[in-house]
Design goal:
Helix content is 28%, strand content 27%. The chain has a 9-stranded mixed β-sheet, with helices on both faces. A 6-stranded antiparallel β-sheet has the order 4-3-2-7-6-5, with no helix packed on it. Strands 20, 21, 22, 23 and 24 form a 5-stranded mixed β-sheet that branches. The chain has 454 residues and is α/β, with parallel strands linked by helices. It has 14 helices and 24 strands. It folds into 3 domains: 103 residues, Beta-Lactamase, CATH 3.30.450; 225 residues, Rossmann fold; 108 residues, Rossmann fold. A hairpin with a 6-residue loop joins strand 5 and strand 6. 35% of the residues are buried.
């Protein structure tokens, strides 16, 4: 991967004592942002961690020196440097005077989307999720270049804060042949999105930081016009979008549905459930967990449905190594936030009461019959039919026993397990671990067995 960062142009705007220090810094290529607040020491944040840049505290004069060398701040308190991708954001006091600056280093990283090249060629709309600072803007900038230059598509970028193509009327070469539409005010982004479709005949529209209900609605309108969308939004995973009401239009919308008694019994759910309302605006979702580790939802429609129903599913994980070799693995879909009985942490996947759960590192939870690994379990207060259905689904060799002393472990409902003192006593004497789940349902039993067999 090649990196174009124009770091010297950013350093030119800094006071001399900061410029001199950073110019010769051994890790200058790893800098993410520079933070300056009045009355505090300046700080740089590298990929390896934060570091103070000087013992001198920042003064009003230091901030004024920088501000004079920037373009004017927009209504979203962001400014830039001509013909670069760097972004400077300000913090204001109650009198609207600037008391702090965050200088974010912008980089055009050529080759950064090798992980998802095949997804771009599919022509489907792609939603990129990730926490702030993980590199979403860098990704869509490279996507714009690849789609416009290498795939020769008509690409229009709706650049709200001039962060994708730089703070200049002439776009940064990092976006290739893609065209850029600037947005005068952030609250008008949704209007510019629609205008891009109506006036400029794009095949692809790229949008950064979709954050409001109007922008989500505009994205859906664009998708319905047959235009490929590539957009970003804040959130660690797809479930964050489901839980964010203004953004649910991106994944088809969410609505409450009341089932009949018979249907609720058949599904083994409550009568009031959440379901997807329509087709999602984006067919593919990418969770940027780390710079070189992404989780892929190749069918957003199915992923959303499975999350809402609490059904078992698999997501795709892609990693790129130092030698640029791509590794694709699969992992279970994260737990459903609308079934609130399971702890989300993988280390505490099933909440265990330490008063009645005992572990011995020397005891193996499985026994072997020939070359086959088997689990011998004692089930307490869990339906046999549910256990049988999960075993058939997962194809795990599991044996049920009625002899408690022969079990590798005990599973059951937490409430009933916690009330059975005799069972706890026998489990303690025989050093048998106990695992409790909150509900008698297939989803939680499936997750328990996956946890035990991992």
């Amino acid at each position: 991967m090649n990196v174009d960062e124009d770091l010297d142009k950013l350093l030119e705007t800094l006071p001399f004592f900061l410029k001199e220090y950073l110019t010769t810094h051994s890790s200058r290529d790893k800098i993410i942002e520079i933070v300056m607040d009045i009355g505090r020491r300046p700080e740089a944040r590298f990929t390896t961690g934060p570091e103070y840049l000087s013992h001198k505290i920042i003064s009003w004069q230091d901030l004024e020196y920088i501000i004079k060398r920037l373009s004017s701040f927009s209504n979203d308190n962001r400014a830039g440097i001509e013909r670069t991708l760097h972004r400077i954001s300000c913090i204001r006091n109650r009198q609207f005077l600037i008391t702090g600056l965050t200088c974010r280093v912008g980089r055009a990283v050529f080759g950064s989307i090798g992980l998802i090249r095949d997804l771009l060629e599919s022509g489907k709309s792609i939603l990129i999720l990730g926490k702030p600072g993980v590199g979403k803007t860098t990704i869509i900038r490279e996507i714009a270049r690849v789609l416009s230059d290498e795939m020769e598509k008509r690409v229009v970028i709706v650049d709200t804060s001039n962060e994708i193509a730089g703070d200049s009327d002439i776009p940064h070469p990092g976006i290739g042949r893609a065209r850029r539409m600037q947005v005068a005010q952030t609250n008008l982004q949704h209007q510019v999105m629609i205008e891009a479709v109506e006036n400029h005949m794009p095949e692809v529209i790229i949008i950064d930081e979709i954050g409001t209900e109007l922008e989500a609605l505009a994205a859906r309108t664009i998708a319905e016009k047959g235009v490929q969308l590539v957009g970003t939004t804040h959130g660690n995973c797809l479930e964050n979008v489901i839980k964010n009401p203004p953004l649910t239009d991106l994944i088809g919308g969410i609505q409450y549905v009341t089932l009949s008694d018979e249907e609720a019994k058949r599904r083994k759910t409550q009568k009031s459930i959440l379901e997807r309302k329509g087709y999602p605006a984006f067919q593919i979702a990418i969770e940027v967990n780390e710079q070189n580790y992404w989780t892929i939802h190749e069918n957003v429609q199915d992923s959303v449905d499975l999350i809402l129903r609490g059904n078992f599913s698999i997501t795709q994980c892609r990693t790129i190594k130092d030698n640029e070799k791509i590794i694709i693995n699969y992992k279970p879909l994260q737990l459903n936030p609308f079934f609130p009985t399971i702890n989300q942490s993988s280390n505490n996947l099933f909440k265990i009461n330490q008063n009645w759960s005992y572990f011995n590192n020397q005891r193996n939870l499985s026994v072997y019959s020939g070359n086959e690994k088997r689990f011998i379990i004692y089930s307490y207060s869990i339906s046999y039919n549910l256990l049988r259905e999960v075993v058939l689904k997962l194809n795990i060799p599991i044996m049920l026993t009625k002899d408690l002393t022969k079990a590798n472990f005990i599973i059951g409902l937490k409430k009933q397990l916690s009330q059975n003192q005799k069972l706890q006593s026998i489990a303690k004497q025989n050093n048998i671990p106990i695992y409790g789940i909150n509900r008698n349902c297939i989803y939680q039993i499936t997750k328990l067995f996956q946890f035990l067999s991992s």
